[in-house]
Amino acid sequence: MVIYPAIELVRASLGRYSITGLYQGAVGPRNYVRLFEQEALPAVAGNTVIWVATVVAVTIALSLGLAQLLNESFPGRRLVRWALIVPWAASLIMTSKLFVWLYDYYFGLLNRVMTAMGRAPVDWLGDDRTVMGAMIAVGVFVSLPFTTYVLLAGLQTIPGEVYEAARVDGAAGWRSYRLITLPLLRPALLVAAVLNLIYVFNSFPIVWTLNDRNPGFAHDTMITFMYKIAFKSALRDVGLAAALGVVNVLLILVAVVVYLRAARWREEPV
Amino acid sequence: MGSMTRRGLLALVLLGAAALLPGGCGGDTPKSIKVVIAEYSRDHTRPFWAALAEQYTKQTGVKVDLQVIDWNSIDQQVSTMIQNNQPPDVLNLNSFSSYAKDGLLYSGDEALSPKTREDFLEAFARGGTYRDKLYGFPILASARAFFYNRDLLAKAGVAAPPKTWDELVAAAKRVQALGGGTIGYALPLGPEEAQAEWSIWMWNNGGDWKAGEAWAINSDKNVQTLQFLASLANTHKVTQVNPGKTNRTDGAFQLFKDGKVGMVMGFSPLAAQLDAEGKVRYGVTQMPTNVGAPVTLGVEDYLMAFKKKGNQEAVRQFLDLYYQPEQITRWIGAEGFLPVTKSGRERMSGNEKLKPYLDALPSARLAPTTDPTWDKVKLDVQQSIGAAVQPGGDPKQVLDRLQKNAAESAR
Fold first, then answer.
1. What is the pTM for the complete model shown?
2. Which of A43, A206, B313, B373 has the most CB atoms lying inside 10 A of its own CB?
């Protein structure tokens, strides 16, 4: 089930295709050579790093706080826990379209707030300085629920006695969080980070929907770039797109391995 | 040894059977055909084609695997079908020549009855021709027209919609000067349909995509046109914010429907939406021009018949059923588009709502869809021309690059 598409992808990346999708024979590694000659590639790779690193880091930081909050009992906790699921359950395309309207220069809620505060309106999705930030905000928004629940599950596996013991030893507040909660949360953090890494890297609908008005490749990630190579640019080349697909799979594998290595390092004796 | 012989015999029998089949001329009709149609509207597309398919099955006994696919993903899905060697039998799309070039299609002589072939309007038949043969069978057409907001123009003291570019600039300035977020002219040069907007401006300045057989995207006239569009945005400041990053449907049209825009280039589906909402009092007229008579863009979509073993007769019957005057006219009428056949034009000539577009048809020109290179040029224009009208954009550089890419693709 996993192997077959992978083989097909590699096979496609070694082939030459007409604009119609018609297979015209094998060309060896030529698509890979052409891929690395693409002028847009460095910018796209840079965008991808910024997109993945920022969304994952901010998501985890916010989720740590949210999970902590949801772990405490307070009136309405059930409601908040349910509310948090909404962005998770909604389709990514619908969520993205909703944000397109929130960000809209003329109709958007965000610019109404800006003008009410006496600031000039901003073309959030058209201005080169704000597009990536606008996309990242949506990326974080949709990643929060899953991440928070993974961390919340992690928090609930930490037995209360550990904290009691710590309190007896005089550790409380931030100190107890840093010395007890975070280390014991490590497995959940690892899971959250790795899954988010893969998920955010592969995320298509957000970048595609929020960036669809911008010509060229200035705000694309590797995934939307791949789609544009195949269907939406003058290249229109399935073989070249497949080569990028193979590179993407390898990149994400390397990224995960590197991350896991780095995370385990710190596990070694203190 | 025994099994070898049996297998050998079997192969011989199969070969013999294949030889008996009249090569591609029917006789052995398929059990079903795959028909892929683009979704023009939720309300009309699927119901019409489902009913047509049902009638076809009743008449021929051949089942129809009908797939109605939205415009956003149809290129991708069709490409995947062809990659997997499962092409449709009948396909509806806005391009055809690349498929003809790849040798995937039946020509009109092979897949249409003479009566159907002769009914096509001359210009649209020409627009479906590749190397002197008809491969892209016209399915419907549309034409752009110039829309203006009557109330905004009146309020700005503009007596009549502009006929020239100078008048357009003057009118747009006055509308923009009304303030409160009012926009003189909504210019969508984002990726969705930039090639359409650009074609109209280009032609109304005397430029064109090609000069003879060669691409001429960066001609002096075209550079002048794009500089003019950039000046609308950056010098006169009479467009919406970031016109190079505004799409048509959710950008320019949306603003016009909201009553914020003085003028925009639209087409009949926009008129239908405006009528349904009843919020904007609008007029429809010819394009403003900078040289000579006004020109508009005609868009022709196609039906294609894919060559597959034994499907020729089944496909021919299906196409002939669609091209029966009452069928094609019923659908085109429901979708609000323009006829592509002589009989259809006669039937629809009395339709008041379509009058401005039918009137515009004689002055309409088509994009160079008969050249397979166009399929790439179009995408290149969509992904790059917007950059030319952004602050600091360089119209000449953008067009030079488009020209270079087009010349390379054409080789």
1. 0.90
2. A206
